[in-house]
Every structure is written in C-alpha cells, then in structure tokens.
Predict the structure.
Amino acid sequence: MDNIHGRVMAGQPKDTASDRDQKIKAADGLRQEMEVLAFRARDLILAQPPITLLSYILSRFHVALLSQSTAGDTENSPPRQEIVKKYQLALEYMHAVWSCHSHLIDNAQAIDEEKVIELMEILAELENKTLFYSMASAAARVDDGKGGYSADTEFHAKISWSLIRGHRYQVL
C-alpha cells in the first residue's frame, strides 16, 4: 500500500499525473477482471440445481472439517479457519446469486462436479482480486490535502467491507 503521507514526510515526491494514470488503469483492469470472475461464478451457480448444489457444498465442507480433524499431519492441512472461510464465501455467494434470480434450474437435474470445482477456484481467485483491487484503487486515489490519510482510509474501508460481506463483488 502506497502511503502518500509517509512519502511526503520522508522527502519523497508525490505521485505524478502519469503515476496516477497507471494506478487508475491497473485498478480498472482489476475491476474488469473481478466482473468477469463474478459473472462466471454467477453463471456456474445458476447452471446447477440449487438444493443439490447447497447439499454438495455443505457435504464438502463437512468432509474437509472431518479430514482436517482426523489427519495426523496438521502441517500439510489447512487451518480450520481457512476451511470455514472458503466454504462460507461459497455459501454467501450462492445465496446472493439465488436472491437475485427467480428462475432457477430444476432440482431433478444432476450436479456437475467439475463445474462446482471450477466455481470454488473462481471464488478463491475473486477473493484475491478483491484484495488487490482494494489496494490498487486506494493507491490511485488523489491526495485530498488533508494529511494524506485518505488513501489509507479508503483501503481499510474497502478491506473491512469485503471481509464483512464475504469478499463478494456486487455485480449480481
């Protein structure tokens, strides 16, 4: 994270217009990537029968917790908190998609496990892109002349919001 106030206090120059333009382009590129990922995640969720998908994700969550608790090698298994975070994000995102769409696929259809695996990978990538976008868009912020803390404040606000809201990017 680029701390403008710290750079000015250390005698380093402020960003030039060219620097800001590059940061804005980088942030916009990340935003566009997030939108593509979010739309792909939405499409994958809507292509699955809702109750079956929900059951599948919950069963994978329980299996992950059970395998973590019975595994003797705790160094190679992810921490419990990471497992919870991963599946909570998936459940929250599925809920958000289903809340926005009234025409859902028939539950009599079979689930496509490969698409569910792809969905989990996309959600993990979307989570990472959200973090990078928060950093890039805050760094592109123009100093408002009130101490240079506006970029830091914007970054912390975006990160806090994404943590509270399950890292979702609201393009649904």
Summary: Confidence is low (pLDDT under 50) at residues 1-12, 167-172. The chain has one domain: 18-164. Residues 18-164 form one domain.
